[in-house]
Amino acid sequence: QKTPVRAVLFDLDGTLIDVDMQVFIPAYLRRLADRLEPHAVPRRTVRTLHAAVMAMLGKTDGERSLEELLRAMLADELQLDWADYQAGLAVCCNNDLEELRPLVRPHPLARSLVEACLSRGWRVALATNPVFPRAVIDARLVWGGLDDLPFQPVTSYETSRLCKPHSGFFTDLLGELDLPPQACLMVGNDTLHDLSAGRLGLATC
Length: 205
What we know:
4-stranded parallel sheet
């Protein structure tokens, strides 16, 4: 007896939107570092932020959120106060993100694909690697013309403890959805990160 699909977990970058993360991440980090300049030298800030992204991707313990990992690295490496970081991030998101819009192209089939899932009564979750704050994920959804779709949950560094391909990334999502792996489908473009969900028993595409 095959378990019917009840939820689809979508990767974002390279799946629902067309974006080169090798270009997007450095461009974003440069702008964020410039907004933190009153508190830290931009070149060092970019290095530390990039190291934090790498640390998030490599994190194997689920003790704390990815945001807490970032917070500790900023304090240790740059003596950067978290309130100052949050303030700089807010200014960056409000004033600079729009400059990154040309780096993101909507995928012509993404919207109809998600709507087809919803029309079947399936829930849709956004299972993007949570190395960004929610505001930067929301911006990419807007640029992809997908911001009005009811993705729930949406992974971001504020709420996630682990990144793909760690199995804990998927078990945390399944816990939020309150569904067994057999009732979920993971859709993505990265055979390492996205299709690793298959090890837990999710169908993958």
